[in-house]
Specification:
alpha/beta, three-stranded antiparallel sheet, binds pyridoxal-5'-phosphate, EC 2.7.4.7, HMP/HMP-P_kinase_dom, transferase, phosphomethylpyrimidine kinase activity, PM/HMP-P_kinase-1
């Protein structure tokens, strides 16, 4: 059987824990062949982000056109998009090439508190990108930003929030409950046909959680073409993330909050 080509459209993280670097490691670990279109450079370590340099939108378009006129991709993970110009370039390519299994991780702010998306670009994610997503994977702060409301941190409002996110046009929403407290971390998958499914995993006690969002969305993208259903892909992706968290403390990648172990 041909190995699946999985494309990451995302930003670079030199510390190797998040962004393009995390995505490519995840794709490989899960049996995919990783490809990448870089949207932004960050100067970053486990301590934080000291700079962001977006790639000019025309050059994002050039990367996408050059790659997608040659290779067939089996799934796409979209991460850090930096600004509205880059979002426009990615949207244009999605329309032109119509790749399968588009997973959008609406990256906005790093755990260190540094912004990875210009605030004025959130509207473009909402109106232009979400309607082109087969799955969007916001955490609770990102969901609140997309819905234009204050963040809520309770499991009972998650279903209602996920349904309102669906109304923004994504085919499916995986609303991640990692920011809630508790022994387990529960995510909620909702689809327009009214199906709702919860995915729970043991909460691993580690401070080294850099790159969890990138890893989960990449794992889902890598597994969608290799599993029989969305739920199976999400379940297995969450298991992969739990193992990456379980082994995070074996790494010594810097003095700050370290990455999960791919
Ligand atoms: N750097 C890049 C390039 C990213 O894409 C992301 C998250 O998506 C981060 C940093 C932040 O990762 P975290 O919030 O897990 O620390």
């Amino acid at each position: 059987m041909r190995t699946c080509n999985i494309l990451s459209i995302a930003g670079s993280d030199p510390s190797g824990g998040a962004g393009i670097q995390a995505d490519l490691k995840t794709f490989s670990a899960l049996g995919g062949y990783g490809m990448s279109v870089v949207t932004a450079l960050t100067a970053q370590s486990t301590v934080g982000v000291t700079g962001v340099q977006g790639v000019p939108p025309e050059f994002v378009t050039r990367q996408l056109d050059t790659l997608l006129t040659d290779a067939q991709v089996d799934a796409v993970k979209i991460g850090m998009l930096v600004d509205a110009g880059v979002i426009g370039a990615v949207v244009k390519a999605l329309d032109a090439y119509d790749p399968p299994h588009v997973v959008v991780d609406p990256v906005m702010v790093a755990k260190s508190g540094d912004r990875l998306l210009a605030p004025e670009a959130i509207a473009a994610v909402r109106t232009d990108l979400l309607p082109r997503a087969d799955l969007v994977t916001p955490n609770l702060p990102e969901a609140a930003e997309l819905l234009g409301e204050n963040e809520r941190r309770d499991l009972s409002s998650m279903r209602e929030q996920a349904e309102r996110l669906l109304e923004l046009g994504a085919k499916r929403v995986l609303l991640k409950g990692g920011h809630l407290s508790g022994q387990s971390s529960t995510d909620l998958l909702v689809t327009p046909d009214g199906l709702t499914e919860t995915f729970s995993a043991e909460r691993i006690p580690t401070r080294n959680t850099h790159g969890t969002g990138c890893t989960l969305s990449s794992a889902i993208a890598a597994l969608l073409p290799q599993r029989r259903s969305f739920s199976e892909a999400v379940r297995d992706a969450k298991d992969y993330l739990t193992e990456a968290l379980r082994h995070a403390d074996e790494l010594d990648a810097g003095r700050g909050k370290g990455p999960v172990h791919h």
